[in-house]
Amino acid sequence: MASGAAAPVDLFARDEGTGPTIVLLHGVGTNHTVWNAVVPHLGHEFRILAPDLRGHGRSPAPAGSRFSFEELEGDLEHLLDRKSIPAAHLVGLSAGALLALRIGLDRPRRGRSLTMVSGAAYTDAHTRSVAERWAETYAKEGPDRFAVRLLKDLYYPDWIEEHMDFADRVRKEVLDQDFGPAREWARQASTFDERSRIASLALPTLIVQAMDDQVVDASHGRILRQSIHGAQIRILAQTGHMIPIERPAETAESIGSFVRDVERRNGSSPTD
């Protein structure tokens, strides 16, 4: 455990299915439910482990936590140990993709592959400005205006127009949510930069990026593809940042096909 990092916590996790394990990591301010529409497409063939990260959803936020990537990595390794999973296919969305990348770099023995959805090798000025705008909107205009801002930034406009019931649900959920842990993790993510190490990544890697992402520019997908040896990429048109919610079938198909191919190339998976 890194100096000054809080001890690992027991994460809540959705755990279902059998077969090679896929770990699905959510992003800042969300929880495991962002993967709800993806899991049914994968659960018949794989073991799916979708945790709530520290301070999110049903997982605790212990006193003294800094929500550093070191702490989040420790929590995930602790979860894998509790579940007797030596290594898993790591999939992350947004800041969860940053976390999955860090695990792949720092603890490569725990990964069998890496899939980065709406991810990046570093947090650029554009993404930082989006996060700052969210914080300012919440502080100055209140949770409802903040929810509207989130919906505009995170989702493709046509998708939101076709799913107004979802938009209404998000606005209600924001009113009751404690964003303290999210703010702390976002602060840590604002300085994320693994450009100096990313070429050393040894895990088979898939990049899933959205052309119309207003949070992480699609150019980051090309940077990742060029920086990681042998990486594959899939780019989705007319799609916003929250790919697993907008395009669950395509997300599951991309992950499933990639993991299946990695398993074929590597032979049988380690005992789950």
Output the keywords:
14% strand; Rossmann fold
How would you briefly describe this protein structure?
Helix 4 (125-141) runs antiparallel to helix 5 (143-154).
Structure, explained:
The protein has a 7-stranded mixed β-sheet, with helices on both faces. The model has no long low-confidence stretch (mean pLDDT 95). It starts with 12 loop residues before the first strand and ends in a 6-residue tail after the last helix. By secondary structure, it is an alpha/beta fold. It has 11 helices and 7 strands. The chain has a domain at 13-124 and 193-266: Rossmann fold (3-Layer(aba) Sandwich).
Total count of strands: 7
Helical content class: 40-55%
Mean pLDDT: 95
Taking all Cα atoms into account, the compactness measure Rg is: 17 Å
| Contiguous helical run count | 11
The end-to-end distance, rounded to whole angstroms, is: 24 Å
Quote the beta fraction.
5-15%
Q: What does the largest sheet look like?
A: 7 strands, mixed
Which architecture of the domain at 13-124 and 193-266 per CATH?
A: 3-Layer(aba) Sandwich
Q: How are the strands of the largest sheet arranged?
A: 1-3-2-4-5-6-7
CATH superfamily of the domain at 13-124 and 193-266: Alpha/Beta hydrolase fold, catalytic domain
CATH topology of the domain at 13-124 and 193-266: Rossmann fold
Morphology: globular
